[in-house]
């Protein structure tokens, strides 16, 4: 898993460097983002689950393709899962390294943008927790997760800071069992900074 993450990080850096050298000045920007996930499980077997709060943080490159349209690959860490009450407060805590590739449209001179695209996630850890114990359940979950991303953002005028809101909807079953249907869903509210 560490080799995969290192390979992906190297590829992301290489892509960013290549994009920067092949495009004119100011057509590729880089940034960081951080936010809070409100995640839960979806799917046919997601009964009586409640939302769980987690962290979402990462880096991105925004590559201008044409006036107002850009592609934004990202590399992020995302805490997903859910909680439910079964004689106590029980939480599924799933940590992923995610790679979204977003198509983004900027509405000229307004600061508003809309974006959408696919995301692949690589499972780093999976635990089931209650108030007293934590148990590793990584073997019960698939190592990759596929999702779609829809979102909007607002760049604050005369700054490099902005606000972003996105929704991740699961496209693939995350459980390593044929007769169980669970998917990761999450809403994320965050901030970003363009370098």
What does this protein structure show overall?
With 195 residues, the chain is mainly beta. It has a single domain, classed as Porin, CATH 2.40.160.20. 11% of the residues lie in helices and 62% in strands. The chain is built from one helix and nine strands. About 4% of the residues have low confidence.
In short:
With 195 residues, the protein is mostly beta strands. It contains 1 helix and 9 strands. The chain has one helix at 2-22, and strands at residues 28-42, 52-66, 69-85, 89-106, 112-129, 134-136, 144-155, 161-170, 183-194.
Notable characteristics:
Porin; 195 residues; 8-stranded antiparallel beta barrel; mainly beta; single chain; 1 helix
Largest sheet: spatial strand order? 1-2-3-4-5-7-8-9
Count of beta strands: 9
Largest sheet: 8 strands, antiparallel, barrel
The SSE order reads HEEEEEEEEE
Helix content: 10-25%
**Cα-to-Cα separation, first versus last residue:** 30 Å
Radius of gyration: 18 Å
How much of the sequence is in beta strands?
over 45%
Number of domains: 1
Output the CATH class name: Mainly Beta
What secondary-structure arrangement, pairings included, does this model have?
Elements: H1 2-22, E1 28-42, E2 52-66, E3 69-85, E4 89-106, E5 112-129, E6 134-136, E7 144-155, E8 161-170, E9 183-194
Antiparallel strand pairs: 1-2, 1-9, 2-3, 3-4, 4-5, 5-6, 5-7, 7-8, 8-9
